[in-house]
Amino acid sequence: MGLEAQCEGQWGAESGRGVLKFEEKEVVFRGDFRLKIPVAAIKSATAQKGRLTVTFGSERASFALGPAAEKWVAKLTTPRSRADKLGVKPGLKVGVLGVSDPTFLDELRDRGAVITQGRAPKEADLLFVGMTKVADLPKLEKLRGAIKKSGAIWVIWPKGVKAFREDDVRAYGPQVGLVDVKVVSFSFVLSGLKMVIPLALR
Fold first, then answer.
1. Looking at the DSSP assignment, which residues form a beta bridge with residue 199?
2. Do residue 29 and residue 98 come from a single domain?
């Protein structure tokens, strides 16, 4: 998520120095003591005199972050939306093929994307393609030809399916001139891997 800082922290009777990191679903402190705070459990986050105070459940922890404390508060209280994580911006040409998520199209419309369903538009900025088996991977070759040189293909698949894994997509990509650059939790039941054309081939 892009936030990491060395700082002094305090949690109940524990105190000491370490590294505070904001990950996708939790805030983690590792050092003289260890603490993981699920983002979903955070009730409040405030900054005062350079100190970040986080209230979660019935507990409270604070961290001396200096001027960065305000930035941490903004990040914790305004989490990134799925559209942000996927790089969807107003006006982008987006294709959605076989993605089973009833709310996703609404999110794309709300973001102002130009959407094509069921097929890949020419010169697409982003393609979201649902896959469930290794036999689906050859589709990537044709889809690669539909995106802009700076575009991307998001391969979306069900979590926990042995017949189709993240490593399968990673291994196949180079065969059709694609490399993986980012993985996300698309939803509670779906994962996503972003594939792009390598700079050397653009």
1. none
2. no
Comparing CA positions, the residue from 155, 131, 147, 143 lying closest to residue 93 is: 147
CA distance 142 to 63: 50
112-138, pLDDT tens digit by residue? Answer: 999 999 999 999 999 999 999 999 999
Radius of gyration of the chain (CA): 20
DSSP strands (E only) in 57-177: 59-64, 93-97, 114-117, 124-130, 147-158
Q: What percent of the chain has pLDDT over 70?
A: 98
Boundaries of domain holding 49: 3-77
Same-domain status, 73 and 134: no
Could you identify the residue written with the tokens 């700076």? 150
